[in-house]
Amino acid sequence: MDLTRTAELLPRVIWRESSSSTNAELRELARSAQSPLADGTMLLTSDQTAGRGRLDRGWVTPPGQALAISVLVRRPGTRVGLGLSWLPLLVGSAMTTALQRRFGDDRRVGVKWPNDVHVRDEDDAIAGRPGQKLCGILCELLPDGAVVVGTGLNLLIPEEELPTDRASSLLAAGADVNGVENLFEPAGTALADTILADYVTALRELLTLAETQPAAARARVARHSLTLGTEVRVHLPGDEVVDGRARALADDGALIVDLPTGGVLTVSAGDVEHLRVP
């Protein structure tokens, strides 16, 4: 696949016709390389067959309709002045920037805490719902301190072929995809290249911002959040379930939830479900 614009922004772009897992493949490449793999190395495919997401969930991409993208980020501890736990949120914010321009004003792209990018319409917003998932994020720390940043992006999956009613794609959600139906046609390759280049540009900008102006990076992440200000149900380890209102992000990126009893819950790990308000 010809990804000229993206390749101009990165030291190396590796395209795979098929991959069991781009995260696993990039991780192994970083481990076995004769010299350290360059910061910003990207490995991607439109046919991921056995990837794993957060909580060990399956993460596959149908050929020609979605992308599995993995990027190596070196010195994340220095570059993410807010702390490594913010990295998935920064990635989600960068992907939000890349995708929002494909939608009109009636649909908002944003981050569902902690690691998904959704698109929602006005009815979703009024009801406090996060909309439908366009992209999942999984960051994996390597032994040398680098991080493999994985994203799975639904681009051209038709509505009738989506895996669940909580998922969507740019095509199914009505984004401007220039009439493209497959990534392997010339217009499809150009679409993928443009979105990837926009994502890389936004991610680099945010990493720089997190290093030099962490408060500004934090504010941008909060601005792109679909979770803050909504009623949520938190599924904690040990099958504990707590309802409350998501209010803010803590210093480490954890979600601060105000409880009906007047207390506060700080969520660092667990699934967060947006409650569907009638």
General description of the model:
It is a single chain. The chain has 278 residues and is of the alpha+beta class. Helices cover 28% and strands 28% of the residues. It is built from seven helices and 14 strands. It has helices at residues 4-9, 22-32, 76-79, 87-100, 122-127, 186-212, 214-223; strands at 13-16, 42-45, 51-52, 58-59, 66-73, 107-112, 116-121, 132-141, 147-154, 231-236, 240-249, 255-258, 264-267, 271-274. The strands form three sheets. It has a seven-stranded mixed beta sheet with strand order 1-2-5-9-8-7-6, with helices on both faces. Strands 13-12-11-10-14 form a five-stranded antiparallel beta sheet, with no helix packed on it. α4 crosses α6, α4 crosses α7 and α6 (186-212) packs across α7. The longest helix has 27 residues, at 186-212. The protein is globular.
Gross morphology: globular
Order of SSEs, N→C?
HEHEEEEHHEEHEEHHEEEEE
- Low-pLDDT windows of residues: none
- Physical arrangement of strands within the biggest beta sheet: 1-2-5-9-8-7-6
Rg, Å, rounded: 18 Å
| Average pLDDT rating | 91
Strand content: 25-35%
- DSSP E strands, number: 14
User: What is the helix fraction of residues, given as a range?
Assistant: 25-40%
For the biggest sheet, the summary is: 7 strands, mixed
- Helices, by number, come to 7
Oligomer: single chain
Structural class by secondary-structure content: alpha+beta
- State the separation between the terminal residues, measured CA to CA: 46 Å
